[in-house]
Amino acid sequence: MVSLGTSHGFLHPDVQKCSRDLDQLLLQYYATRRSKQ
């Protein structure tokens, strides 16, 4: 994502989509970790 942002600018739609996808993955990861504890 940083590489995309550096080459296209952080407001580029592809970078924004990548950021949203990463946020979703992180939320899933933390929810999974929380449920296992």
UniProtKB/TrEMBL annotation:
Signal peptide: none
Coiled coil start-end: none
Domain of life: Bacteria
InterPro entries: HLH_DNA-bd_sf, Spo0E-like, Spo0E-like_sf
Name this protein carries in UniProt: Spo0E family sporulation regulatory protein-aspartic acid phosphatase
Organism: Paenibacillus plantarum
